[in-house]
Amino acid sequence: xxxxxxxxxxxxxxxxxxxxxxxxxxxxxxxxxxxxxxxxxxxxxxxxxxxxxxxxxxxxxxxxxxxxxxxxxxxxxxxxxxxxxxxxxxxxxxxxxxxxxxxxxxxxxxxxxxxxxxxxxxxxxxxxxxxxxxxxxxxxxxxxxxxxxxxxxxxxxxxxxxxxxxxxxxxxxxxxxxxxxxxxxxxxxxxxxxxxxxxxxxxxxxxxxxxxxxxxxxxxxxxxxxxxxxxxxxxxxxxxxxxxxxxxxxxxxxxxxxx
Amino acid sequence: xxxxxxxxxxxxxxxxxxxxxxxxxxxxxxxxxxxxxxxxxxxxxxxxxxxxxxxxxxxxxxxxxxxxxxxxxxxxxxxxxxxxxxxxxxxxxxxxxxxxxxxxxxxxxxxxxxxxxxxxxxxxxxxxxxxxxxxxxxxxxxxxxxxxxxxxxxxxxxxxxxxxxxxxxxxxxxxxxxxxxxxxxxxxxxxxxxxxxxxxxxxxxxxxxxxxxxxxxxxxxxxxxxxxxxxxxxxxxxxxxxxxxxxxxxxxxxxxxxxxxxxxxxxxxxxxxxxxxxxxxxxxxxxxxxxxxxxxxxxxxxxxxxxxxxxxxxxxxxxxxxxxxxxxxxxxxxxxxxxxxxxxxxxxxxxxxxxxxxxxxxxxxxxxxxxxxxxxxxxxxxxxxxxxxxxxxxxxxxxxxxxxxxxxxxxxxxxxxxxxxxxxxxxxxxxxxxxxxx
Lengths: 259, 438
Prior knowledge:
The structure holds two protein chains of two kinds. Chain A is an alpha/beta fold. Chain A folds into two domains: 6-128, 3-Layer(aba) Sandwich (Rossmann fold); 143-256, Rossmann fold (3-Layer(aba) Sandwich), CATH 3.40.50. Chain A has eleven helices and eight strands. In chain A, the strands form two sheets. In chain A, strands 2-1-3-4 form a four-stranded parallel β-sheet. In chain A, α3 (30-45) crosses α11 (249-256) and α7 (119-128) crosses α8 (160-168). Chain B is mostly helical. Chain B folds into two domains: 4-31 and 63-241; 255-265 and 286-425, Orthogonal Bundle (Fumarate Reductase Iron-sulfur Protein, Chain B, domain 2). In chain B, α1 (4-31) packs across α3 (64-93), α5 (105-134) runs antiparallel to α6 and α14 crosses α18. The longest helix of chain B is centred in the first third of the chain and has 30 residues, at 64-93. Chain B is elongated and about 95 Å long. The termini of chain B are far apart.
């Protein structure tokens, strides 16, 4: 697929309207890469003039910061900010709520001031600007529940953009008993993704998957590559992978629009 | 001789308030053990938060049952205090119901009537609270950290409130003139017939006793606050005022680290340069927190403000899945250690003498800290904006940056970020491979 880099853009003397921050998961994780590609297809359909940093992108440092390594975080941040500022980046969109939170909230005081969108916010804006529409017939009446990523929801009070997009899919949305500001974490945040959980009587992702399965869904939608992994693992643990799909909202829109 | 009750009353009042003030000064001293943090910005938003969250109880009703009951107790507590003002004036001047002639019978009856109804509402709510704790045994009141004193403390406060409200009603019910007038007694009129069998002299003794026990009880309760979890009735206001205003996901960037990073990234910086004049003896700043004195004063105020309701713990994903972590316990342990440090300072003539203990390990274990997913559910649920997550993060910072004591898998993750720019062991040069796959 055609994915221009900032370096190529610069060589042609062009400045894209938005930088797509892919994030480590979106770049390397096999499952998350599908979300990345789905989002690029949407950007293409809406004729968005975008670019990525490619090999010049590096970890935002979120996981290091939450693990307590402020040094590593700030080293990453300062390096990334140097690259972003050199390309005079103004607007960033990302499919990863952790990158979204860090770029939006934690980079400004270190010299990185950008307008940052989560991809659900950006897609909503594309629709509002008349650049994209969502076909509501392909997924019509599918039973769907939505899991709020903590770093989009509680961390940044964004509950409506993902739901606005879900409503356009024509699906039947059932909320979990814990949703929006009371949503339960998937278990990946705060660098938990990269370690075994502490001793307990259950894994968090299993508890959250049980919340989701109570709504009897065909699709568990989410907006975070880490939540996605955790929920897929949870669905496998509950032996429901034949009945329940875990999909990102970008993938659902790409499906609906047959991209 | 006739002034003896007034003098006794004045002495009790001075002692009660004096002892309370002494403890409040100690509390402020302990809070100031924390590091400076600037929360003087955006006053308008801070006043708004205080009005909405502390005064307006906005977050309490997220859980409707306990929320509405709490609003009843809260309103009763605040409004009935107007009556306490009358009691104090009566006590000092030797008057009886001094507000009655000033406010006029009608309005006075309306006021006292309102107080009586509120007192009854408080009484009923407190009974329901007691049942929720002790009969229904709601899980959040029976977590591990709620054994012993915290459990008794919760019940003692409820008993205090039951007794104080009963005394107020009995005081009115045994006031013959007040009952005969028959106005402003919507609740006590039902207690009056029970007491009617007593002689007028006996009724007068009951009324006076109820009056005295009531006001002395209030002063004891006031002084009990400092030793209990109940300080939130005062500290909820400053706590919501000084709470963080940024999005919950935003973690502070450590300034000390920023300086170091700038030095490392600055090609013209001389790493072997002699320290600046006068800076030779400067102790390098400690990163993160291992004891209460490394936390900031807002975090310490949070610990005094916590009323141990457990809404945080009951929504914590780690706690819900049986992990050691409980955000409420983080706050309780922080307070316990702060009290210990404060007592140490008092015992050693104003300076802290090393006791070989610290908040980390002696109170809060790494296992608790590493179980946190930083999901902010605890911060969201706290009805008065306490932030347990910030303490957890500061202590993780100490573990990692001062002790290199992260779990092994996290060390690997961090090494990968350092070397490959990603938490996994992938080559940076493969970062764009996804565009040609599929």
